[in-house]
Amino acid sequence: MARLAIGHWFRDGVFRSILRNASFLFSGKIGGALFGLVALACAGRGLTPALFGTLVLIHSYANGVGALVKFQTWQLIVRYGAPALERGDIEELRDVTGFAFGLDLASGLVGLVGGLVLLPFLAPWLGIAPEDLSLALFYCTLIPTMTAATPSGILRVFDRFDQIAGQQLVTPVLRALGGAISYFGHFGFAGFALTWYVADLAGDLSLWVMSFAELRRRGIAGALRPGLFEPARRLSKAWDFVWTTNIAHSVWAAWGPLSNLIVGGLLGPTGAGLFKVATTFFDSASKPADLLARSFYPEIMRLDPTSRHPWQLALRSAFISGAVGLGLLLLVMVGGAPVIGLVFGARYVAAFDLLQIMTGSLIVTMASFPLESLLYMAHRQRAALVAQTAAALGYGVLLVAMIHGFGLIGAGLAYVGGVGLKALFMLVPTIGAYRRRAGIPFAAMKESEA
Question: Which segments cross the bilayer (predicted)?
Answer without folding.
Answer: 21-41, 47-69, 99-123, 135-157, 169-189, 318-344, 350-371, 383-403, 409-428
